[in-house]
Amino acid sequence: MEIRVATAEDAIYADALCQWYIASAKQRGTGIAKREPAYVSQKMASGDGIIAFVDGELAGFCYIETFDDKSFVVNSGLVVNVDIRKHGVGRAIKQAVFNLSRTKYPQAKIFGITTSLAVMKINTDLGYEPVTFSELTQSEDFWKGCKSCKNYGILMENERKMCLCTGMLFEAADKLVQVQVPDFAALGAPAAPVAHDHASDPETDSAS
Length: 208
Prior knowledge:
The protein is an alpha+beta fold. It has helices at 14-28, 37-45, 89-104, 117-126, 140-143, 152-157, 202-205, and strands at 2-5, 49-54, 57-67, 72-80, 109-114, 129-131, 166-170.
């Protein structure tokens, strides 16, 4: 498995990734923020994304967003090829984007909101703790990312204090965390990319 910081050259995968997000939302039947190819491409060009390949085939992606003068960081838009899920690819991507967040924004609190049990488990292993939405960024830019989620009405009815997502926060700046990931060399080549999940919902998961 190849897992690395995405670059501008990876923009050729932006359309496919956005289709994965759409298919993932339909498959799960839960809310997920919509992403546009131009936005995903911008994250790649700025060095704020992690991209993964297995045997040369696109395997997954996740990116970073910052809020409140970079005092909050969210690891957003985790998506994995459906044909290779449950092999630890999502976990490896989450570890990589978490490490990237700690490197680029060492003083920031790392957070996410998600309905994905898999993402919650990975976040817990990384040291996140469940929190109320009041502990997260109050940036309008973050919360407007939820507008394309089908549960947005629930969020607004509750004055952005709660929704179907669970808020999770990592704020131990001096804590070094490493989760266990499998040996990807044992994985076979995936079939043609199909939309998956492990998407960190609007973690903006807007936004793990």
